[in-house]
Amino acid sequence: MSQATTPQKIYLKDYTPPAYAVKKVDLDICLYEQQAIVSSRLEMTRQAAGELVLLGRDLQLQQVSVNGEVLSSAQFRLDSESLTLIDAPDRAIVETKVIIKPQTNTTLEGLYQSGLDDEMMFVTQCEPEGFRKITFFPDRPDVLSEYTTRLEAPKTFKTLLANGNLVEAGEVGDDRHYTIWHDPTKKPSYLFAAVIANLQVLQDHYTTSEGRKVLLELYAVSQDIDKCHVAMQALKDSMKWDEDNYGRAYDLDRYMIVATSQFNMGAMENKGLNIFNTSCVLSSPETATDERSFNVKAVIAHEYFHNWTGNRITCRDWFQLCLKEGFTVFRDQSFSGDFRSKAVQRIEDVAILRSAQFAEDAGTLAHPVRPESFVEINNFYTATVYEKGAEIVRMLANLLGKEKFRQGTDEYFARYDGQAVTVEDFLSALSVADERVLAFMPWYRQPGTPVLSGGVQYEQDKVVVRLAQKTRHVPNYDAPVALPIPVDTAIFDSNTGQLLAEKMLLLTTDSAEFVFDGIQLSEGGHPVVSVLRNFSAPVRLEFDYSDEDLVRLVSFETEGFNRWQAMQTLVNRWLFGSFDNVDSIAGLLKTVTDELLDCDPMLAARLFDVPSQKELAMAYDSDYDPVAVKARRDEFIKLIACALADKTTTWYQALPIQAYEDTPLARGRRLLRNVLLDLRLLAGDAAAEQDVYYQYDNATCMSERLGAFTAIINHDLGKKSLYIANFYEKFANEDLVIDAWFNAQALSSRTSIDDIAALMQRQDYDWNTPNRVRTTLGALAAKPVQLWTQQGMALYLSAVERLDGSNPLLAARLLSALARWYTLGDDTKAMAQSNLEQLKQKVQSKNVLEFLDNMLTV
Ligand code: PHE
Ligand code: ZN
C-alpha cells in the first residue's frame, strides 16, 4: 500500500465566498441491486470571482453538460476530489450523471446501506461532507439552495423519503416505483437526506403556535415501531418548548424521523427528515434504561431545535460548527432540565464536560471551541465544540438573564434567518441586549481549561472574596489572555446555615477582589462562601475551602449542584490523600440520604458518585499510575460501603420494585436502588445476593434488570453464567439490549482483556455497526488498568487499524480516547508511544493520521 501523503490543512483565515450560487437543485436517485445512478441539475449563477468547481468523491462520472451541451473531456478537469468546468459561463445549468455504490459503502457517509435482509435500508448522511459522495456539488454550508428530489427503487422498498413535502408518487414499469419531494426552504447540502427502505410508521400531529398543522412521522423497522412512543411525545414537547422559550415555531407541514441501526453519531438534523441512530430514538420500559430513555428525549429535542439553530440559520463554514452545536446543546440541556430536577441535570452535564471535554482540553488534541485549522472536519465533532460551546452560551444566558437573553436571541433569529453566519454574528446579535457579550469572543478562540483559584477573608461585616485565573499555554497558540468568568457566589453563616448573600461576580482580569458589605454573622459564626454555584463557568476550581466548610456546604447549600460539588470535593480530597476522614463522608451520606430518600432520590443517588478512573487520571500530567489510582478508588468505595452497611439494606428495602412509571421520582428511586445494591454487595451483606436475583427476576423495566445484571457480573455472583445466558436469550432479537449485554460484561473489572477479545470474536459482534463496536472498545477505554498494557493497547489499536479502512470516522473517534498517553509513567509511556508509532505506519485515512500526528507531538 502506498504511504499516505501529509494531509492538507485548511485555515479559517483563508475563507473566501463561493464563486457560484446554486439557486435550484434537481436530484434524481435511482437505486439498483448493485449501484445507484444519480442525476443532478444545478441552476448556478456567478456571484464572485473564481472557477466553477464541484466537489465529488468516489463518484463514477458518466456525463456532464452545461446549458444543454455535453462537455468533452477537454472542457473539464476531474480529480479524486473535484470536477472543474473550464471557462464556465456566469449562468450555467450544470447537469451531471454519476454511478455510486451504496451497497459497499461502509463509511456511513453519503448514501449507504444499513441492515440486512428484510431490515435492509438505504440512508444518507451528508454532514459535514457526505453530499459530495452522492453527486458533484459545491458542498459547503454557505451554498443554500432549493431542492427537488426524485427517488426511484424496486417496490420491495416501500418507503421512499426525502426532505420537504411529497409532491408526486407513481410506478415505473411493474417492479419499480418513485416519489418526488420538494423542500421549499433553502438549505445547505449537508442537510440533504433521502431514505429508501421498508419501514413502519407511527403518526401523530402537532398544531404550531402559528396555526400550522404538522404531520409527525416516526419510521422504524416493524419490530421496533412500538418503541417510538417516547420519542413522539418528546418531539411534541420539544415543539412546544421552542415556541414557549424562544418563540420559534416549525415551518413545514411534515416532520419525519427515521431510525437506522448503522450510524456513526447520535442523530442528524436533516431538514424535515431527521435520521437517528436507533439507540437515540427507540425506547420502551422493557428494553431501555431510564438513562437511555432520557437520552432519547434529549436527542429528539436537540435535533428538533436545530431546525432554527443550524438549519434556518446555518454556519458560514465548518470552523463555525459551534455556532449551531454549542447553542443547540445549551437548548437541549435547558429543555431536559425542565423535565427533571435542574440540579441533577446540571450534575450530569458537568460530569460529561469534565470527563470528556476537560480531558480533551488538557491533552494533545486540545483545540479552541472555534478551531482555526483542520485537516479533517469530521475530527472536530468534539466535546470541546459541543459541550464547551454550550457552556459559553450558558454563561451568556446567565449573564444576560432571561429577558435580555431572549431579546438577544430574538434579534439573532430576525437578523440572520436564511443565512450562513459566524460566531461573531451570533455575539453581535446578542450584544444588542448587553454589550458585555462581545468580551466573550476569546472563549471561542483560546484552548485550555482555565483554572480558577481563590479564597476568602473577612473582618466584622465585610467579606472579601479573592479570585484569580490561569490558563495553560497550549503549544502553537497565542499566549492565553484573561477571560470573562462569571462566578455565581453565595455566603452562608457557619452556625445557622442561613443564606446571607448571593451575587454573580464577573472576573475579567487575571485576579480581583470582590467585597461583600453588611454581612450579619451569628455569634462566633464565620462566613462560608460557596463559589461557582451551578457551575457558572467551565473552569477547574481550586478554591481554598476548609474541610469543615465543605462538610457544612453539603448540609446547608441550597443550590443542588454545589451541594453535590462540596461532596465531590471531599471525596477527591480523600482520594488524593489530603483528607482522611472517611467516617465524616459516610456520616454526611447517611444524613443526606435520609433527608432525600423520599423527596429527591435521584440527587441522593448522585451524592454517592465517585469520580471515574478516567476523570481521576486528569490530575496527572506525568507519572500517572492507573493501577495505584484504581486501588485507591476501590479502597474508598469499599470503606464507604462498610461504613454504611447498617443503613444500605434499610434504604434498599424502602425502595421496593413498583409498577413502572416514567417520572423523576420513579427514575430516582430506581437509580438509588441500583447504587445501594452495589454497596451492599461490596460490604458483603449476606442477603444482598438473593436480592439481586430477585430484582433481576422481578424487574418491571430495563433499569432494574440491567442494574441487577451488572451487579451479578461485577461481583462475580454464583449464578453469573446462568444470568448471562438468560439475559441473552430473553433479548436475542433486541440489538440495543444485546449491546448492553456486551457492554456490561466488557466494563467489569473482572473481565480480562482476553475475555473482551473473545467477545469481539463472536459472530454477533458486527464491525459494521458502530454501536456494537463501542460496547467493548468504549469499555476498554474506561478501564485504564487494562487499556494501558501491551495487550490492551494491541487489542485496541488493532481495532482502530481495522476500522481505518472501513469506517475512518469511527476509527479516529476511538483513537482520540488515547490522547493523554504521554502522562503515564515512563515504561508504560514508552510502550504506548511505540504502539502509536507503529499504528502510524499502517493507517491511511486522513482522520486517523491527523489525530496520530497531533497525539505524537508532545
Ligand atoms: N449534527 C449532528 C448533531 O449534532 C451530529 C452529526 C454530525 C451527525 C456528523 C452525523 C454526522 O445533531
Ligand atoms: Zn447537533
TrEMBL record:
Domain Peptidase M1 alanyl aminopeptidase C-terminal: 547-856
UniProt domain Aminopeptidase N-like N-terminal: residue ranges: 25-191
Entries under NCBIfam families matching the protein: pepN_proteo
Gene3D superfamilies from the UniProt entry: 2.60.40.1840, 3.30.2010.30, Neutral Protease Domain 2, Peptidase M1, alanyl aminopeptidase, C-terminal domain, tricorn interacting facor f3 domain
Keywords for the protein's UniProt record, in alphabetical order: Aminopeptidase, Hydrolase, Metal-binding, Metalloprotease, Protease, Zinc
Sample GO molecular function, one term: zinc ion binding
GO process annotations (BP): proteolysis
Sequence ranges assigned to domain Peptidase M1 alanyl aminopeptidase Ig-like fold in this UniProt record: 448-543
Domain of life: Bacteria
Protein family: Belongs to the peptidase M1 family.
Cofactor: Zn(2+)
Catalytic activity: Release of an N-terminal amino acid, Xaa-|-Yaa- from a peptide, amide or arylamide. Xaa is preferably Ala, but may be most amino acids including Pro (slow action). When a terminal hydrophobic residue is followed by a prolyl residue, the two may be released as an intact Xaa-Pro dipeptide
EC number: 3.4.11.2
SUPFAM superfamilies membership: Leukotriene A4 hydrolase N-terminal domain, Metalloproteases ('zincins'), catalytic domain
Protein name (Swiss-Prot/TrEMBL): Aminopeptidase N
Ranges where the Peptidase M1 membrane alanine aminopeptidase domain occurs: 231-441
